[in-house]
Specification:
The chain is an alpha+beta fold. The protein is built from 12 helices and 6 strands. The longest helix is centred in the C-terminal third of the chain and has 69 residues.
């Protein structure tokens, strides 16, 4: 009986307030620091170009026309984006359906029937006794209307949820576009880095092969020990073994880029066949604060709109405690012949007021409400977690960007020193001070450093891409209020 009393109180309060049952949505407050931990270091970076964190075309800041062209083409033909756009169409249709549910519906029906009665049935004999002929005709035309009165706001809560889901789907398109742009840029940079590393690896193979040939010659002359020869051959095999690994990674990256472009693997091989320089990461300005992510990252908008929709579903579930009232009306004509179909005697009308109340089903209603509240709690936790992970993404990207660039500067210094050492060893070799083995060893160390430098350049550029992606890529939108009308398209 406690449930019945609660329902009665809710019914009385709703009638007096004249509003939709269930909790009204309020965006949850999210505590966040004033700045990112990595903001000062990122702001102090020096780069040939600078791009705002709110720039919609941030990828152009890398100064690579091929990269820019690939991203723009991918945004036009990527299939993940096409799926996201299709979800917007579905959500828009759901919103219009929810809008229509708040309004009366109507239909027009018409029928014409001809019947020949059997005289061998009881009904046929009875009708014949009253002089009813065997051949009968019936004509009818009606206009009907029905309206489910949203007295307690259940339909309005459904409409509110549909609107939130529609907004979430639109933000989902922005999220998909940002993800595709970032993945294309990241994959392209990885391709250029792998191409440079392959060039270095092939040069390492050539250098190590010359070393093996030199020691082999000395071994055959009895100058070098067999141990030296076998060690050199082992190093050569080790260096050669890195080439297929790098080639596999390059092929996989090229195939991944083709799929991102919405094309068959191999479609972009000709365009990217010639190696090119690894794009340089631009400086990032207008970083903003963690609080700004709530408006700038579309995936957070998606999570927040899902939370709002789940809140509205609670009200929709609570409305099942209360009776549903509907009005149905019909006007039309019915006659046994076309000539009398539009006469006064053929006119007919009907009005029905309906009531449906799940009075003895409150246990199931309770379960539905608890389910809706549980989904809302889950969506709230998911939203809060998404906000935390968004800040984590930014901090990780900033850390990688700053430290990879520091590694790059260190390796540049090391490369310069090793290049001088290589030149010195060559001069000493020509002067007869050192053997060719020392020269080739210096070449090997230099190439190893260049391989590490290529990796550092690649990873710093990829960290810049991750930074733009984690900052939201410049997309900025504030969800409209639930009462906002849907713009025609």
């Amino acid at each position: 009986m406690h449930v019945h009393t609660s329902a009665a109180l809710l019914l009385a309060s709703s009638l007096m307030a004249g509003c939709a049952v269930g909790p009204d949505y309020h965006r949850p407050a999210i505590a966040s620091p004033a700045t990112f931990l990595g903001s000062p270091a990122v702001a102090d970076r020096v780069a040939p170009t600078a791009v705002s964190g709110t720039d919609l075309a941030w990828w152009s800041g890398f100064g690579d026309p091929t990269l820019t062209g690939l991203v723009e083409r991918a945004l036009a033909q990527n299939l993940d984006i096409a799926q996201a756009v299709a979800r917007v169409t579905q959500a828009r249709a759901g919103l219009r359906e929810a809008d229509a549910a708040l309004l009366p519906s109507g239909d027009v029906t018409a029928s014409a029937a001809a019947l020949r009665l059997s005289r061998d049935t009881l009904q046929g004999r009875q009708l014949a006794a009253f002089g009813v002929g065997r051949n009968q005709e019936a004509y009818e035309g009606d206009v009907g209307a029905s309206w489910d009165i949203d007295l307690f706001g259940g339909l309005r809560r459904d409409r509110e949820a549909a609107f939130d889901e529609y907004q979430g789907s639109r933000a989902g398109v922005a999220a998909a576009r940002l993800a595709v742009a970032a993945e294309v840029a990241d994959t392209y940079i990885a391709i250029r880095g792998l191409q440079e590393r392959l060039a270095v690896a092939n040069e390492q193979v050539s250098t190590q092969q010359r070393l093996v040939d030199t020691i082999g010659l000395q071994y055959r002359k009895g100058v070098a020990a067999e141990l030296q020869l076998r060690q050199a051959e082992g190093v050569l095999a080790q260096v050669k073994g890195t080439v297929p690994v790098l080639q596999v990674a390059l092929d996989a990256a090229l195939n991944a880029l083709d799929v991102l472009m919405g094309e068959q693997p191999g479609a972009e091989r000709v365009l990217l066949a010639a190696p090119s320089a690894i794009p340089t990461a631009p400086a990032i300005t207008d970083i903003g604060s963690p609080a700004d992510l709530l408006q700038r990252r579309p995936d957070l908008i998606v999570a927040e709109r899902r939370l709002a929709a789940s809140n509205a579903r609670i009200g929709s579930a609570i409305s099942e405690y209360f009776p549903k009232i509907s009005l149905t009306g019909l006007v039309g004509t019915a006659a046994t012949g076309p000539a009398s179909l539009f006469t006064g005697g053929a006119f007919q009308a009907q009005g029905v007021a309906g009531l449906r109340w799940r009075l003895f089903d409150f246990g199931r209603v309770d379960a539905e409400i608890k389910n809706a509240r549980g989904r809302n709690a889950e969506a709230l936790a998911a939203y809060r977690l998404s906000v935390l992970r968004a800040s984590e993404d930014v901090e990780n990207a900033f850390s990688a960007l700053v430290n990879r660039e520091q590694q790059q500067r260190t390796l540049v210094t090391g490369e310069t020193s090793l290049a001088r050492a290589q030149q010195s060893s060559m001069a000493a070799y020509k002067g007869g001070v050192v053997s060719l083995i020392e020269v080739l060893d210096a070449d090997t160390r230099l190439l190893e450093t260049r391989d590490a430098l290529a990796q550092a350049r690649t990873e710093s550029a990829r960290a810049a891409v991750a930074s733009f992606r984690s900052l939201g890529g410049g997309w900025n939108a504030v969800p409209a209020a639930p009462g906002t009308k849907l713009a025609a398209r």
